[in-house]
Amino acid sequence: TRNPNFREGQELANCSARHISELLPDSSVLVDYVRYEHDITLRQKESRYLALVILPDSGMNVIPLGPATLIDSLALDYVREISGANELDAAEFRRVARNLYELIWEPIRLSIPNTKLIFVGPDAALNSVAFESLVDRNDTYLVESYRFHYVSSSRELYRTMRSSASSAEVG
């Protein structure tokens, strides 16, 4: 007999976007951010971000977000504003939160219609961002439109959802 932990490890290793999309609740989405090295030439690389967007019973969209230097710089400004390293200036915070929104959320927004629950897996500097506090073009915080649940990885979400589905079947 095989060790159940081994079997679970094998299933997680083979986890795909399709597996996750089959378990996502209606009106939800997984947005998994990835910071990666993009080859510009054979010897030149640039750090960039992209978002992997998985909808229920659907495939995966890969959305390029742009150079990491700009996104990381705005994320650092965001952290400075929200942490009180500077005297909190509400107008300045909203400006930074809106600029960050434009780079990391606006490109995704149109691909997630009718979504209320966002499972978000931030990467690198985005781990310090509370997505709820980003400000959209209507000067509205995202918390007014969505519920956010943070995950460390898509595999963690898959394991949790699969375990919940198994419990529901047994119970």
Which helices and strands, and how do they pair?
Blueprint: H1 4-13, H2 17-23, E1 28-39, E2 45-54, E3 60-67, H3 68-83, H4 90-104, H5 106-109, E4 117-121, E5 147-150, H6 154-170
Parallel strand pairs: 1-4, 4-5
Antiparallel strand pairs: 1-2, 2-3
Describe this structure in words.
The protein has 171 residues and is of the alpha/beta class. It contains six helices and five strands; from the N terminus they run H-H-E-E-E-H-H-H-E-E-H. It has a five-stranded mixed sheet. Helix 3 runs antiparallel to helix 4. The two termini are 26 Å apart.
Can you give me a brief rundown of this structure?
By secondary structure, the protein is α/β, with parallel strands linked by helices. The protein is built from six helices and five strands. Strands 3-2-1-4-5 form a five-stranded mixed β-sheet.
Fraction in beta strands:
15-25%
Helix content: 40-55%
Element-level helix/strand string = HHEEEHHHEEH
Task: Quote the distance from N terminus to C terminus.
Answer: 26 Å
Mean pLDDT: 84
Oligomer: single chain
Features:
171 residues; alpha/beta; 5-stranded mixed β-sheet; 23% strand
